[in-house]
Structures are given as structure tokens and as C-alpha cells.
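Annual report, structural modelling task.

Input specification for the adenosine monophosphate complex:
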Amino acid sequence: MKGSILPGATVGVLGSGQLGRMLALAARRMGYRVQTFSPNSGSPTGQVSDREWAADYEDLDAVRSFARSVDVATLEFENIPASAVEAIEEFVPVRPGKTALRTTQHRLREKTFLRNAGFPTVPFRAVRSRSELDDALREIGVPAVLKTAGFGYDGKGQTRIGGPEEATAAWDSLGGDEAVLEGWVDFQCEVSVVGARGLDGGFAHYGVVENTHRNHILDLTVAPAQNVPPETAREAAEISRGVFEELGLVGTACVEFFLTTDGRLLVNEVAPRPHNSGHWTIDAAATSQFEQGLRAVCGLPLGSTEGLRPAAMANLLGDLWAEGEPDWGAVLSHPGVSLHLYGKAEARPGRKMGHLTAVAATANEAARLAKDARSSSQPPPEAGPLPS
Ligand code: AMP
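The model returned the following structure:
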């Protein structure tokens, strides 16, 4: 294909976490070289890359040196400063493009973009001062959730407001930064669509999956979603295609939705990169979300997104390390379960350390298997004293 970046070339990855690691593994399998750039060394991505650049994103000399040594750049983390992206673009393409990044880096910009483009969103208002919060609460009502406008993920920088008396504490907890007040959504479930848009504008998606969160962090993904009517699933895919197109995005990305109790889809968030709810595709789809993103970024044809078996993904958070290293032998004794660990040295509560994928005859069975396998990683609870 004309203009394609072919195997043998070097892919630059901005960010160095687990998403970059899985992308790098897919790239290396296809014969690409990989270099990663982030402020960290010994990172999950760096461990499996040809070269790891450890420098600040604001260090534009280092960014330019990195850019000179790669053929194309992509990212695994959307909060990359625009100055770094622009410096790289002096040398090689950065995909997805600047519009997708700029829009999704900032909740307020993202929600405004979605609303203006006619996509269904949660009711929201911009809040730039304590008094604006009162106005917004009057308009939106309670319960509501106040979120920082920028740099938030996995529930960081957000606080629920149950009544007007909680407004001051909520405002103070965000440190007076620009914020967004959202109405609290009464949802039956959370779903997402992971897909990819190619350089030629082609779109392919993995269908609708159902996500369960714990403490605002993804806990379990079930693929395909079990409780979504086919018409709603089609609508979710169409909205996602539209969002990708409006953003001019090239690569793998994800649209997260609430499915309300009255059956409406509301877009919660757009991630312009591979997503946690697409990890199951490594083990259970014809082309993984990581290979798909790479194909898109390199201008190659998109692969088949067919799901090979029903699957479930359970995240492994640092909390599982509280009593020492989890029992991986017990986990792996479950047929149909694969273990993915990200090479992070320090297990902190809430930190994503790895995930399990389970495949089975049905999605419900896969979900049960993934959860059982995860529980088996923990020591059995201490037996209490025998009843006398
Ligand atoms: P976010 O970081 O905005 O994706 O939020 C993380 C999680 O918090 C979501 O996946 C939901 O489980 C929950 N959440 C966020 N916003 C709302 C909302 N407006 N109403 C209900 N739950 C929410």
C-alpha cells in the first residue's frame, strides 16, 4: 500500500505503561522495531522495546532526538503535551492526530465536542468558580459528580455531590481547578466499543462489551455484552464510528457509554488509544486491538475483528499483592485462563498490575471463570477458632 510503514520500520510509542507494552509486543511480533518515550525508565513498555527514552515530555530536544529515530509515532496515554506532539510532527506523523488528542485530553472540551456534534452525553456544566458550582447544581440537580476538567482517569479527580451542603467540600477537594459538573446517571450497565479507524477512513469495531467498575476502576469486561439489545448494540457502534470520524482519528480507540435504566446510550468518555476493555481481544479475537492500532497507524489494512470465543477480562490490581505475590500456579490451573502481567515492580493499591482473560463456551461462563481464577490467586482466609 502506498505510504504504508512496513515491518522493519520503527514505531515510536509516547507513554510507557501496559498499553504501550502490549502494543510493543504486537509490533515486535509483526517485525517492527519499537522505541518508547516517557519520563520513566525500566517501564512496562521499555522492558519489551528496542530502546527506552527516559526524559520529560517538555524536554523538546530529547523529544526531537526520539522523533529522528522512529518512522511513525503513536501514543498509549492521551495526556501528552501538544508541544511534544508538534515537535515530533516536524519529523514523522503522529497518529491519532492532534485534534483527537486535544479534544480528549480535557473533559470539558470532550463533552462540548460531543454535544456540539450531536452525540448523546450526560448533562453537564462547566464550573470555574465556587459560585458557578452553585449555579450548576441548581441546573443539573443532585446527585451529581464534580470532575476536574483536565488530566483525570480511573475516577481520579472526581467527587460525588449528594446534596448542596456537600458542594464546598467537593470544590475544595479538586483544589479550585476548572471542573465539570455532571448529572449522576442511573445506569443499568456500562458498555464500551473498542474499534479502529484506518488511514483511509475505514472503520472496524469489536462489538459492544459490558464493563463493571469497582472504586471507579474497571474490574471486569464481558465480551460480548450480555444485556444489550441488538438495536442498542448497533446504535453504540454507529455512535462510535461517528465519534472516530468527527475526531479524524487514526488508530485504535474506545468510546465508553452508560446504558441508562430507560434504555438510552450516553457517551461517558472517549479514549484515543487502546483501552482496558479491549484487552480480551489479545486472546479471543482474530486481530488484537493492539495489532489493529498498529495496522491503522502504519497505514495497513485493518484486520478482522471477529470474536473467536466468548471472553471475559478481570483486572489484577495491586491490592492482590497485599499478602505477598499472588499464587499464579493456582490461577493457571484454570483451563481457558491466560495471565498477562505488566512488569511493574511496585504493587500499590488500585494500580493496574496485570489482567486475566478467560475464554469459555458462553460469556457468563467466561466471566465466572475469570473471577474464580482471580480469587484463587489469594491465600485462603485464615480458619477461625473451631466452635466449642
Ligand atoms: P470516568 O473517569 O469519568 O470514566 O469515571 C469512572 C467511573 O465512575 C465510571 O465508569 C462510572 O462507573 C462512574 N461515573 C462517572 N461519572 C458518572 C456519572 N455521571 N454518573 C454515574 N456514575 C459515574
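The mean pLDDT is 95.
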